TrEMBL record:
It is a multi-pass membrane protein. InterPro entries: TRPM (IPR050927), TRPM-like (IPR057366), TRPM_SLOG (IPR041491). The keyword Disulfide bond does not apply. This is TRPM SLOG domain-containing protein. Residues 195-318 form the TRPM-like domain. GO terms for cellular component: membrane. GO terms for biological process: monoatomic ion transmembrane transport. Keywords: Ion channel, Ion transport, Membrane, Transmembrane, Transmembrane helix, Transport. It comes from the Eukaryota. Coiled coil: none annotated. Signal peptide: none annotated. Pfam families: LSDAT_euk, TRPM2.
Length: 354
């Protein structure tokens, strides 16, 4: 029984690997490395431009862990690594080397001797094997930009998710927009403020519009304040289309607004329109307040805007038909699914425009 492991009950799902051996460690290493490399190269959300962020967290571990960390740091693309100092064995050795490695990638003589003694003591290695493992540990420690050492309790501000997100921002070579998306998803405005909007960097107002929509949808109040502090213009952001979209977030669920309107959700039409919302606000106020959304001026403006959107969609569909007829002779064997995707690529872009 001493040769077997128990499943960690803090996880919900498990992937079991069998290479035919029994009572030996390492059956999962090759498959796990290949799977993680595949995920790291995969685009997020199918056709998105963002890669799936991956980080390796090291707690304790043996010699196989040290070799795995070395591979992570030298992969293409490389995977950032977090080492939990104080968790024992491999983690402590890598953290020790990381603390004392010099800019030229070497260790002071006395530190190297101390590290060799620790390797021999922990793994019961011979002098030759200890030197080989020391070289691998040094290769890990030299990757300072990709290696983060987490010391629990040393810095009250640093917690585990802070360490993980910081490692991702430093090691994944993400664009500022992807970094902001990660910080927003993790609800870490402190990291966004310190590492993304650092040195008072001002972003173009329009570049924050998508992030602002996400912050409002996720109820991230501190991020809304951060975007306003860094140049986002509410006047330019809050278009009629965006305002209507915000009112209709999670529109398939019952809400106080829908109850006041008396509109039952159905498959035919579930989207709330601003004039209807204005009428509901007037009802709440007891008809002592006149909403701008119910005024003739706004309704005329609203009708023109919706008319332009519909005409734009019609014109794009006409253009698609013209292009399709023109290219039909050049591409004779376009199958049905390809034609459908070709058509949807235009209509989707049209519908997503504010």
């Amino acid at each position: 029984r001493d040769h077997y492991c128990i499943l960690n009950d803090r996880h919900s799902y498990f992937l079991l690997v069998d290479n035919g051996t029994c009572g030996r460690y390492g059956a999962d290493i090759v498959l796990r490395r290949r799977l993680e490399q595949y995920i790291a190269q995969k685009k997020a959300l199918g056709c998105g431009t963002r890669r799936v962020p991956i980080v390796c967290a090291v707690l304790e571990g043996g010699t196989c862990t040290i070799r795995a960390v070395n591979d992570y740091l030298n992969n293409n693309p490389p995977v950032p690594v977090i080492v939990c100092d104080g968790s024992g064995r491999a983690s402590d050795l890598i953290a020790f080397a990381h603390r004392y490695v010099r800019d030229d990638g070497t260790l002071p003589k006395e530190v190297a001797s101390r590290l060799l003694s620790l390797i021999e003591k922990i793994f019961s290695y011979s002098d030759t094997c200890s030197h080989e493992l020391l070289d691998e540990i040094l290769q890990c420690a030299r990757q300072r930009d990709l290696l983060t050492v987490f010391r629990l309790g040393k810095d009250k501000r640093q917690d585990v998710d802070h360490a993980i997100l910081t490692a991702l921002l430093r090691g994944q070579n993400l664009s500022p927009f992807d970094q902001l998306a990660l910080a927003l998803a993790w609800n870490r405005v402190d990291i966004a403020r310190a590492d993304i909007f650092m040195n008072g960097k001002q972003w173009p107002s329009h570049s924050l519009h998508s992030a602002m929509m996400d912050a409002l949808a996720l109820d991230r109040v501190e991020f809304v304040k951060l975007f306003l502090e860094n140049g986002l213009s509410i006047k330019k952001f809050l278009t009629i289309s965006r305002l209507e979209q915000l009112y209709n977030i999670n529109g398939t669920h019952s809400s106080t607004l829908r109850h006041l309107i008396g509109k039952k959700t159905s498959n035919e039409e579930t989207e709330l329109k601003l004039p209807v919302i204005g009428a509901a606000i007037e009802r709440i106020m007891g008809n002592v307040y006149k909403s701008y959304y119910t005024s003739r001026q706004f309704k005329n403006k609203y009708s023109k805007l919706k008319g332009k959107d519909q005409m734009s969609a019609v014109n794009n569909l006409r253009n698609i038909r013209a292009v399709h007829l023109k290219t039909r002779n050049q591409v004779r064997y376009r199958n049905l699914s390809s034609s459908f995707d070709y058509l949807c690529s235009f209509t989707t872009n049209t519908l997503l425009k504010p």
